[in-house]
Specification:
single chain, 480 residues, Rossmann fold, Beta-Lactamase, 3 domains, five-stranded parallel sheet, 17 strands, 24% strand
Amino acid sequence: MTEPMPERVKILLVDDQPAKLLSYETVLKPLDEDLIQAGSGQEALEQLLRHEVAVILIDIVMPDLDGFQLAEMIRSHPRFKKTGIIFVSAVHMTDADRLRGYELGAVDYVLVPVIPELLRAKVRVFVELFRKTQQLENLNTELEQRVTERTAQLEAANSRLTMAIEIAQLGTWEWDFISGLMVMSEDYFHRLGHEPGVTEPALEGFLGLLHPDNRQLVEAELLRTRESGVPFHQMLRVARPDGQILWCDARAHCEFGADGRPSRLVGVIMDISEHKLAAERQEMMVRELHHRVKNSLATVQAIANLSRRTSTDIDTFCRSFSGRIVSLSKTHTLLVDNKWNRIRLRDILTSELDVFNDSGEERIKLCGPAIDLPSEMAISLGLAFHELTTNAVKHGALSVPGGRLSVNWSIADEPGSGDNSALHLQWREHGGPKVGEPEHEGFGTALLRGLFNTDNGCSMSVDFNPSGLNMELAMPWVSN
């Protein structure tokens, strides 16, 4: 690859005699550089202000400013303190003259008549020196620019790293195997509930932060890492001074010395207490879901068995069984919408009975305080309300246009039971067909007696009054 031609530099020739300037130009032309002429000291100063000059040839004897005066003026300007100056003299110079010239910054002398080869050689030295200096300055400028850019990149990277550490709630820690010093970032010390400087910055101090049940295992893993150089990874429990227990994920890698042995352990530590709590909640929810599914399947099985015993044919069984499963599904939907916490008693009744408030008439009256039911109680009452509603639609008050239904409930203290309370509920129908005592106990009655019996702490009565069915129920109640 052909190297680029070096940039031409400028040489200033100062003399009041044009012939001498022409002779200098002829001698220096083989250097192939830019030659600038000045016929006086004033013109020389003007040329210097316009151009970057590598070397100046100055005639000592000139009418307005002699060479010494011109050199002094040039050196007084900060820009030209290092510009090469060669004095050219046709007169004999004393030692005092030479000393004065050197004091003014002259770097060489050439006597007239000029020896062309000698002058070219002297000027060439200064030209190359100037060119190398310029190259070094350019390289230095480029290097400074690269350093500036790299510094900015490192600062940006450090800023992003710091931000990532803060967002991820990470702390840094290290253990010097040689000195035994073990330190942790101050902000994380605060997170763990401690003040920097209080805990000994050594292995013993670090272990003192941990839950007693963790210390032995963590110490053994740290020592194993120090001996083998394998990465360290442990889930720690940290005991804060306020008694709170934090779960932390600590990871680290070894740095190795010149002998190939582990010399330092450097790593990060992250508070995972929230993740641990979320995992425990999820595990609890899975167990709770398993429990609820088993209960639901048991309820479905019980519904199927009772429906089978009270059905005369397969069609009757399918209709009754499907209706009861739909009712169960409605209650489950309400529970899911409320995240399986508690649902309103009124909401369960409304989901079953609202469809029968037809023709703009208020056939159904619900009266009672706002009560939130736990899930188990909600499922039992949902099934009970479905059976009572189905019976009312087929045989009771909701089977005729003039029939009416009222459901009342309240919470009251149980006499003689201390602080225990009970949910009292009354289902009363009137205005429907005449009611009589059934010859055989149907599914609805069997289900109610199975759901609400003395084993469950409940009491229930069903009165087949001719004016309409009346059911009264009392269930143990625990306040929110």
